[in-house]
Fold these 4 entries.
Entry 1:
Amino acid sequence: MGSQVFKPNANSIAHMAIIGIAVGPLTIGLALAALSRSPANTKVNIAKNQPVPFSHQHHNWELGIDCRYCHTSVEKSSFAGIPSTETCMSCHSQIWTNSPLLEPVRQSYETNTPIKWNKVNKLPDFVYFNHSIHINRGLQCNICHGSMQDEHITMKGNSFQMAWCLQCHRAPERYLAWNKDLKKEYPGLTPRELVFKYYWKLQKEGKGNLSQSETQIANNTYNGEESPKDVEDGKAIIKELGIKPQQLADCTVCHR
Ligand code: HEC
Ligand code: HEC
Ligand code: HEC
Ligand code: HEC
Ligand code: HEC
């Protein structure tokens, strides 16, 4: 579990440090120094054992099932949600019914006990995160989660450390124009809808037909737009969406 790499009281130290903003920079400095010595909570690109070897590569890429079929609340709430056994059984009561790999799924269904999936991504309790706002701004899942469509066993795609979040929060204009070619192809779609259209395009046409940014997003090598033209387009999107970039790096955005 991600939280175990923190020392037992790391959550409370951090909380105090955040409150300490009012008290003085020294408190924060000390707490940060203490915490930075604890092992980093990264574990990027390490496959996590699961009770069932569920493959995104198989279900998303080969079968082309939309993320929202399983992660039903990702565009509406702070949590994406993990699918219930019923969602799996909507197909697996009819196909692959004898697969030994699916035995835990059948067991779960028959005994009415949820499958205990191991969490791959977990922020500490003192950090606030919200999926719906990021999806509604048109930020692609892979920008944060890595090459989901290629994964046989789910892995963490990025460190999710504070500095990683801030890299974007301090310059969101660099990350918002990745979809401009897709937008030309589908002018009627909102940024949110383009997030999912991206996978559809990837699945239907393969990696050969992607723009440079789209390719980097597929391969988890995307570090935001570099060219002045793309950054200008990102700034225009910020205006259009009413994002207030000067406030996005405030401590209270993520620590409340
Ligand atoms: C058929 C159902 C299904 C579909 C479709 C699906 N997922 Fe998943 N996803 C799961 C299940 C089950 C888990 C939990 C097991 C695991 O981590 O592999 C999961 C886990 C995840 C996790 C890690 C959750 C954690 O523990 O932190 C991410 C991120 C994720 N999915 C993203 C996506 C994205 C992006 C898409 C669309 C490209 C997608 N999923 C489509 C079923 C699905
Ligand atoms: C929309 C239909 C659909 C849904 C929903 C679905 N699957 Fe599948 N799944 C398939 C198909 C089709 C295959 C077989 C793919 C192949 O090998 O050609 C498969 C294969 C599998 C396999 C590999 C079986 C083997 O013996 O190789 C596992 C494990 C699996 N699914 C788990 C799950 C889990 C867990 C869920 C729910 C989170 C789920 N599936 C939801 C269609 C679905
Ligand atoms: C801006 C970065 C970002 C984007 C974009 C993003 N996620 Fe996440 N995701 C996270 C973070 C951070 C967590 C861990 C949240 C926590 O522990 O509170 C997470 C956790 C998850 C989880 C597991 C926990 C949960 O929320 O139920 C799933 C599943 C998931 N994401 C799916 C998706 C899908 C699907 C998309 C695209 C539609 C997506 N994410 C887009 C950052 C992101
Ligand atoms: C690739 C860019 C990007 C990354 C990475 C990113 N964010 Fe954001 N975040 C945004 C944008 C854009 C907004 C929307 C601002 C707006 O609409 O006003 C936002 C908004 C938010 C909000 C405000 C939500 C609200 O309800 O007001 C929170 C909280 C947040 N992000 C937390 C995080 C955390 C925590 C991480 C790291 C785990 C993270 N973000 C990573 C771009 C990003
Ligand atoms: C965009 C979101 C975001 C903003 C803005 C943000 N933080 Fe954080 N902060 C995080 C995340 C995510 C972590 C957890 C890092 C981890 O798990 O490694 C964190 C962790 C921390 C910690 C614990 C020590 C550490 O580095 O892990 C402290 C203290 C902290 N933040 C203080 C602040 C202060 C002070 C500000 C304002 C100057 C701030 N944060 C702004 C996301 C944010």
Entry 2:
Amino acid sequence: MSKEAFLGLVEGFLSGNYRVYLFVEEMGEKKTFSCKEKGCGKPFDAWPPDEEHIVPRLEPAEGAVPRTYKCEDEGKHENTIYWLKETEPKLFFTKT
Ligand SMILES: [Zn+2]
């Protein structure tokens, strides 16, 4: 195999991966939580409300976007997830 052919192959492989990556990004990152209701604990899926607020918290926080999700137990229980901006934990870690 020539160098050009090899590089072409690598390039094709990388661009292939890149497309997959973009696809995942567009889908948003699904997170699975357990119902907080006592004796339930059934899972429920939550998606970030937008591209910025992607860090889930179970407690209210400043600047967080609350979203309510129903668990898989026939939707009897409501769980609120507070979505924070991705930059918040990074800011936290710079405080040394
Ligand atoms: Zn539940």
Entry 3:
Amino acid sequence: MTKINAPPPQHSTSQQTASFTRFDTSDLSPREIYKLLIGTVVPRPIAWVTTLSPDGVANAAPYSFFNCLSADPPILALGVENWADMSFKDTAYNIRMTEEFTVNIVSNALVEAMNVTATPFSSHIDELEKAGLTTAPGSLIQCPRIAEAPVAFECRRHVGISVGKSREIILGLVVAIHIRSNLVDRERFHVDQLALDAVGRMGGQGYALTRQLFDLPTMSVADWDAGNIPKRSVTSS
Ligand SMILES: Cc1cc2nc3c(=O)[nH]c(=O)nc-3n(C[C@H](O)[C@H](O)[C@H](O)COP(=O)(O)O)c2cc1C
């Protein structure tokens, strides 16, 4: 891939002297805090979570309160809210009952299918079927993955942290990783992120694409002292 130098965006004086609007979270409703958080912590990766109900019905739903929090041990985290009547979402219920789940990564081509699986269908409905998706069996867990998804992480429930009356953070231990072979160099463990074409979640109902990439190497202190300040290089546009 050709690398070209790209100028960094200019910081204007008005930005440096900008005033800030301060919010004290104790003055805000949970909904107001939610809107500020999801509007600013962006873009968020999306976990497209598949689970199996205790009766064996496959379930899928997107969760953007999601990230990888540790590589050793490999831990992924999901933030799941209850429904307004405090009942569990199918994802939370199924994970609690089966102690397994799979996180699939959403590529640009799959966003509309993902959106179908966000519909609050009742728990006996297979959302994957509704979205026209197919599943592939898990290798170490019973829970299937989405065959069309470019990446899937098979997880065993590690721990659930109840952080409020309607919110649980679920940590999953990754036991197997599936990556479409054309996306990964299996000797160097390098993933082609341009080809992965993952989608992120913005505020409201917004999404972001991830194909405007640039590199910016981290400096050593010696680089800094010597004035070797790296410049960003565009790897795609
Ligand atoms: C992109 C996207 C991200 C979402 N992120 C979350 C989230 O982080 N936490 C949550 O509780 N619901 C989230 N939702 C809503 C759930 O996907 C939705 O309530 C879904 O119907 C739950 O399905 P389930 O009952 O099958 O688990 C999100 C929806 C979308 C479209």
Entry 4:
Amino acid sequence: MAANCFSSGSNMFQEPRGENLSSAIGYTQKMTVPAAVTAQSLYDRFSVPPNLQEHMLRVAAVAEIIAGRCAGVTVDFSSLMSACLLHDLGNIVKFEIDKYPHYLGAEVVRRDYWEGVQRDMIERYGTDDHAVTAVMLEEAGIPVVVRRLIDSKSFPHAIEIADGTDWTRKIFLYSDLRVAPLGIVSLDERLDEALARLEKYRGRADLADAARRIESQLASVSSPLLTDADSGVIDSRIPELRKFPLPGG
Ligand SMILES: [Fe+2]
């Protein structure tokens, strides 16, 4: 990885805490410290469906590849990874299970169960997915810097992100745009899918143009941006990324 790219991030995969420390430090009395909060522990805590987990894990894997290849720019790697891993934490409240049951993947056989989870989450947190995710992140003690990054990532911010110089935000938004509900796609495929599926983005050519500008900007500092060979790497990173230790969680 290009060392000059990151403002932080060498602590990517620390060993989970929670081990018995008594032998290491010579205490006769057993001492334990709390286990680290990982991406998976929050997916479990907030009943995140497996397909949504996989989306966030793939976004993180894409961001990891892009950030790892970039040079000459500053990226807050720890915040970037945390934001990718958690950015859609509360999205079950907006799932249209009737319309897109296949998005549940293998869990479609437990559709009734996930519809029940959705009802519970809506009752507890409401129906605004952005607000739901924000509350969950706050409940989980995720630092403000990560919460702000997530809050300012959504597609309507594409123009501002393209115009700006924050490379962490550019990588974050772009990585999310390369991961469709069922896997990695080209930017154009993703834009076509999102613009067709989501009424609020229909006719927003300005946002699509901004996304393409971000892709060009990233291609100029991170080469190659993503290759076909990266698809296999992305899925192979998923088990490790589930264990990613989250800051302040
Ligand atoms: Fe996403």
